[in-house]
Amino acid sequence: MAKSVNKVILLGNVGKDPEIRSTGGGTLVANFGLATSERFKDQQGNWQDRTEWHNIVAYGRLGEIVRDYVKKGHKLFIEGRIT
Hints:
- The chain is mainly beta.
- It has one helix spanning about 60-70, and strands spanning about 10-15, 20, 30-40, 45-60, 75-80.
- Strand 3 and strand 4 form a beta hairpin.
- It is flat.
- It starts with 7 loop residues before the first strand and ends with a strand.
């Protein structure tokens, strides 16, 4: 049986300050939106921009780092998995 891969790499801008909360067990959770953009030429030769929004969730120590250092407008490189 072949192994499956679930990996994503994003480079984008934070849309708003992260929301921070704790689980019932006390684990810190940080949620925020990350906008990625691509620029391409349409059929008429005009440049177009396309933005996609990604919901990011960071738990535990990563959540603490997000809480302490990430703000709206920051550019982030994120590696993770899609759930």
